[in-house]
């Protein structure tokens, strides 16, 4: 991530704090990733060796599963040895699962921080009337490929995050202060019906944000109604 691109948009102290935090996070992620990769290779090798040994011993004993092993009489310690191998195999598989989870958690934290910084930079180029609503909407349409987030356009195509923000501003100018927000979008019509800004037909981020501030109860009701339709 190009943290230097944020230098002119933040105070020196804020930039140094963010830069130090991201650097530490990247270092932790890389160290954990290397440790996890090396550990996984070792664990996988041991697991495969133990599985192979277990199969050979079961063949020698003339059995096919653990239940048959328990029913065998003692034969010079072979059954006990097989049990010990099985227990060690299960421990190694648990260790492997723990390392996978640790790496996933760290990668998720790194993605979250990187996405926040990139999105903040992209959004500063426009004067949004409801920046929090826009940020949440864009975040919900992001897809990660390798180490970069991409915005899903209305036609389903993936574009860069910065290009996605520009596209949203171009296709929905009502989200910008300079263009105005228009009518309420959720008042009753002459027929008594309610226009729902959360519905697919009348989807409107600006009106969603306004409604959430002015009438949260109605907003939640309309949101649930849109989901059920």
What is the assembly state of the chains in this entry? Answer: single chain
Going by helix content, strand content and strand pairing, the class is: mainly alpha
Along the chain, the helix and strand elements come as HHHHEEEHHH
Tally of separate helices = 7
Strand content: 5-15%
Strand adjacency order, main sheet: 1-2-3
How large is the radius of gyration? 28 Å
Structure characteristics:
single chain, 229 residues, mainly alpha, three-stranded antiparallel beta sheet, 5% strand, elongated
Structure in a nutshell:
The chain has 7 helices and 3 strands; from the N terminus they run ααααβββααα.
How does this structure look, described?
- With 229 residues, the chain is mainly α.
- Strand 1 and strand 2 form a beta hairpin.
- It folds into three domains: 122 residues; 51 residues, no CATH class; 48 residues, no CATH class.
- The chain is built from seven helices and three strands.
- The chain has a three-stranded antiparallel sheet.
How would you summarize the topology of this molecule?
Elements: H1 12-61, H2 66-71, H3 78-123, H4 131-140, E1 142-145, E2 148-152, E3 158-160, H5 161-171, H6 205-214, H7 216-228
Antiparallel strand pairs: 1-2, 2-3
């Amino acid at each position: 991530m190009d943290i230097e691109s944020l230098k002119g948009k933040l105070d020196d102290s804020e930039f140094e704090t963010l830069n130090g935090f991201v650097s530490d996070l990247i270092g932790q992620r890389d160290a954990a990733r290397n440790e996890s990769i090396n550990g996984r290779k070792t664990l996988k090798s041991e697991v495969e060796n133990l599985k192979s040994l277990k199969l050979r011993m079961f063949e020698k004993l003339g059995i096919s599963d653990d239940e048959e092993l328990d029913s065998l009489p003692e034969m010079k310690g072979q059954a006990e040895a097989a049990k010990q191998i099985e227990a060690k195999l299960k421990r190694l598989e648990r260790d492997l699962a723990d390392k996978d989870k640790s790496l996933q958690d760290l990668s998720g934290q790194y993605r979250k921080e990187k996405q926040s910084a990139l999105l903040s930079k992209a959004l500063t180029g426009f004067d949004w009337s409801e920046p929090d609503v826009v940020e949440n909407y864009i975040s919900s349409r992001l897809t990660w490929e390798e180490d970069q987030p991409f915005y899903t356009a209305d036609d389903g195509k993936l574009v860069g995050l910065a290009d996605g923000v520009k596209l949203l501003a171009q296709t929905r100018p009502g989200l910008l202060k300079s263009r105005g927000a228009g009518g309420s979008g959720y008042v009753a019509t002459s027929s008594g019906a309610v226009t729902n800004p959360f519905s697919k037909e009348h989807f409107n981020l600006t009106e969603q944000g306004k409604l959430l501030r002015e009438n949260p109860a109605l907003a939640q009701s309309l949101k649930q109604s849109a989901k059920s339709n």
